[in-house]
Amino acid sequence: MLTGSPYRVTVICSGEHIRMTGRAPKVYAKTGDNGRTRFQHFCQECGSPLFTSGEGGPDDWGIRWGSVRQRDRLEPSRQIWCRSAAPWINGLKELPGRPTD
Ligand SMILES: [Zn+2]
Fold first, then answer.
1. I need a labelling partner for 79 at 20 to 30 A (CA). Which of 8, 57, 61, 87 fits?
2. Taking all residues of the chain, what is their mean pLDDT, rounded to a whole number?
């Protein structure tokens, strides 16, 4: 589990719509349950996950929501991996919350 978390929010887009700035990311190749290899790209300085890209397949990039400058304007439109969701995931809204740590 690369996220170490019950959630990962990903923005799917085509590589032609991406403009990267800064240092080139570090890359880790991972083969998924479906046999496809995905490349996981991380910040070289802090290790933050940035995006995924495919190998020889469709040009779909999965950009980590936290690395998108316009993230507040992007709302989720579907969920995947629901079979392995934490059983308590839908009750989070009922928990007391704080604005910061
Ligand atoms: Zn970083």
1. 57
2. 87
